[in-house]
Design goal:
- There is one protein chain.
- This protein is α/β, with parallel strands linked by helices.
- The chain has a single domain, classed as 3-Layer(aba) Sandwich (Rossmann fold), CATH 3.40.50.
- Helix content is 38%, strand content 20%.
- A five-stranded parallel sheet has the order 2-5-1-6-7, sandwiched between helices.
- The chain starts with a strand and ends with a helix.
- Bound molecules: adenosine-5'-diphosphate and ligand LLZGTKA7.
C-alpha cells in the first residue's frame, strides 16, 4: 500500500477547523472512504481519577493536556498501513469514554486540532500543514454558541475559561504555530478557493 497523505489542520478553537474538514471530505464521500478524519480532541488525557470540580478547572489549552505520544504512535501505524483504535473523549464529563473506535488506513488522513502545529516532534509526520486563521473575537463568539449548545456549558463558564486559559494559551502556543504552516486559510470553513486548492491536491492521491 502506498504511504498515506497526512494533512494537519490547525488553528484556534472556533476558527472553523471542523467545518473546513467536513467541507473538504464531503467532496470525496461518493468515492468510498479514501479520506479519513482523525481529531486531536480524542487524544485529550483520561481524567477518571479526578473529581469533576478538578476536571472543570483543568487547562485544556496547554499541549500537555493531550496524549500526543499516543497520537504519534497512531500516525506511525497508519503510515505503515495498519488500523488504529483511537480513544473517544467526552467534553461534558472531561474524560474518555470507555470505548475506542477503529480507523482503517486510507490514502488520505486529515487530522484536525488546536495543538497539532505547536508540537515540533509531530511536524515531520505531516505532509501538508494548514492553519485556519480567524480573528479571536469571531472564534470566541462561535465557541460561545457552540459550547452552550453542544458541550453543556453556560455563557459565564465559557467567558471565564476564555479569559483564564483559552486566550493566553492561544497567544503562547497556537498563534506562533501559524508560521510552521504550508497554507494559511482566512475566512474559516467557508473559504471555497482554499477548499478547492486542497481538494485538487488530495485528488492526486486517490486512484
Ligand atoms: N466561516 C464561517 N462562517 C460562519 N460560521 C462558521 C464558519 N466557520 C465555522 N462556523 C461555525 O462556528 C462554529 C465553530 O466552528 P468549528 O468548525 O466547530 O470550529 P473549530 O473546529 O475550529 O473549533 C460551528 O458552529 C461552525 O458551524
Ligand atoms: O474537557 C475539555 C477539553 C477541551 N476543552 C476545550 O476544547 C477546545 C478544543 O476543541 P475545539 O473543538 O478545537 O474547539 C479547547 O480550546 C479547550 O478549551 C474543554 O473545554 N474541555
Amino acid at each position: 500500500m502506498q504511504k498515506p497523505l497526512i494533512i494537519a489542520i490547525s488553528g484556534a478553537s472556533g476558527s472553523g477547523k471542523s467545518l473546513f474538514t467536513e467541507n473538504l471530505i464531503n467532496a470525496f464521500s461518493e468515492q468510498g472512504r479514501p479520506v479519513q478524519i482523525l481529531r486531536e480532541d480524542h487524544y485529550y488525557r483520561a481524567q477518571d481519577h479526578l473529581p469533576m470540580e478538578a476536571r472543570e478547572k483543568n487547562n485544556y489549552d496547554h499541549p500537555n493536556a493531550f496524549e500526543h505520544e499516543l497520537l504519534k504512535a497512531h500516525l506511525g501505524a497508519l503510515r505503515n498501513g495498519e488500523p488504529i483504535d483511537y480513544p473517544h473523549y467526552c467534553f461534558k464529563t472531561h474524560t474518555r469514554l470507555p470505548k475506542t473506535e477503529r480507523l482503517q488506513p486510507a490514502p488520505v488522513v486529515i487530522l484536525e486540532g488546536i495543538m497539532l502545529l505547536a508540537r515540533v516532534e509531530l511536524l515531520p509526520l505531516y505532509d501538508v500543514k494548514i492553519f485556519i486563521d480567524t480573528p479571536l473575537d469571531i472564534c470566541l463568539m462561535r465557541r460561545m454558541m457552540r459550547d452552550v449548545r453542544d458541550r453543556g456549558r453556560t455563557m459565564e463558564s465559557v467567558a471565564k475559561q476564555y479569559e483564564q486559559t483559552v486566550k493566553p494559551m492561544y497567544h503562547q502556543f497556537i498563534e506562533p504555530s501559524r508560521f510552521t504552516a504550508d497554507v494559511v486559510v482566512t475566512q474559516g470553513g467557508k473559504n471555497q478557493i482554499a477548499l478547492d486548492v486542497i481538494k485538487s491536491h488530495i485528488q492526486q492521491f486517490i486512484k
